[in-house]
Structures are given as structure tokens and as C-alpha cells.
Design brief:
Largest sheet: none
Oligomer: single chain
Number of helices: 8
Number of strands: 0
Order of helices and strands: HHHHHHHH
Shape: elongated
Length: 193
């Protein structure tokens, strides 16, 4: 199994775990005893998508041009900060970063809710509805990420024409690309709560 295959496997596992988190939260609304499974599933989904994102970062930092996403948004002769920025310079990496942060926020909310005692039934149901909404949002993002072929192979024709890679768009070579997208997607994820 190659590293890109492993990255895609992490994304499919995250989708399955995210869907399980959503279903467990929905079952809890119907008064089905699910125990402590929702926060555990949310945490596992966040871990799996984080592993997928870390795989993509690794492919960028090592300039693995055999992966199309890396080929289109990086070059072998770029310095490491621009290689890192290339991770979220395109649609695949941006959506994966957003899904990773959203899954982490959903897991944090689910985990914190499970640790706090509810004062009444209304508060318990409100928390469960929040987890269900976060689960649905996370699952939708994970489905988009898993199906967009983030780890697809680069065609030999492209590699032959540009053996160093396509490179990062020159308009994106600003220090702001290193902080703006991660902070923006974190804000979007927190706003989902």
C-alpha cells in the first residue's frame, strides 16, 4: 500500500466514523441508550481525518509529485513554507483542512458535553441536537473530501512535461497564505457550533 492509498483510506475511515457519530447522536434523540459512543466516534473521526491531512502535508513536504494535488500546487525547488502552503492552496487541500478542523471542533464539543452534567432534560436534548447538527455537517464535509480524489495519481504526461511540478501560483506567495486559510477555516468551524 502506498502513502497516497493510506491517505485515502484514512479519509474513508473518517467518513464511516463521522456517519456513525451522526447516527449515534440521532439514536440518542430517540432515547436509545448509546452510552459514551458519540464522543468516542467523533474523536475517532477527527483522528482519522487528521491522519489523512497529515498524510497530504507529508506528501507536500517531501515533494511527492506522483500525487496530482501535490503536482499542481507545489514544485520540488520550493522552500518548505511554500510547500506547506501548497497543501491548502487548491480545492482538495482547502476542503480537507476545513473538514479536519470541523471534525476536531465537533469532537471537542461532543467530548466536553459528555463530561459536563446536564442540569435538566431540556439541556440534555439541546446538547444532543447540537451534536447531531455537528455530526451532519462533519459527515457532509467528510463525504466531499473522501470522494474528491485528493490522493489521485499524476498522469505520466504531466510529469513528463513538468518534472519539477506545476508550482504554487505566484499571487499566493505571501506570508498571509500560511496563516489566513487555517485561521479562516478554524473560524468557520467554530461558527458552525
Amino acid at each position: 500500500m502506498t502513502i497516497p492509498d493510506l491517505g485515502q483510506l484514512f479519509l474513508w475511515a473518517a467518513l464511516a466514523l463521522g456517519a456513525s457519530f451522526t447516527l449515534a447522536s440521532a439514536a440518542e434523540l430517540r432515547d436509545v441508550a448509546v452510552g459514551r459512543w458519540p464522543p468516542r466516534l467523533a474523536l475517532a473521526a477527527a483522528g482519522a481525518v487528521l491522519a489523512g491531512f497529515a498524510t497530504l502535508v507529508w506528501l507536500f513536504l517531501t515533494s511527492d509529485l506522483s500525487t496530482a494535488t501535490v503536482f499542481f500546487y507545489s514544485r520540488t525547488d520550493l522552500d518548505w513554507p511554500w510547500k506547506l502552503a501548497g497543501t491548502w492552496a487548491g480545492r482538495q487541500g482547502s476542503l480537507l483542512l476545513w473538514a479536519t478542523l470541523l471534525a476536531a471542533v465537533a469532537a471537542a464539543v461532543a467530548w466536553l458535553d459528555a463530561r459536563r452534567a446536564a442540569s435538566d432534560e431540556a439541556e440534555t436534548r439541546g446538547r444532543t441536537w447540537t451534536r447531531l447538527f455537528l455530526g451532519l455537517a462533519t459527515t457532509a464535509f467528510l463525504a466531499a473530501v473522501a470522494t474528491q480524489e485528493t490522493f489521485a495519481a499524476t498522469s505520466p504526461a504531466l510529469l513528463g512535461g513538468r518534472p519539477l511540478g506545476n508550482g504554487l501560483n505566484p499571487t499566493l506567495r505571501s506570508g498571509f497564505i500560511l496563516i489566513h486559510p487555517p485561521l479562516m477555516f478554524l473560524a468557520y468551524s467554530l461558527a458552525t457550533v
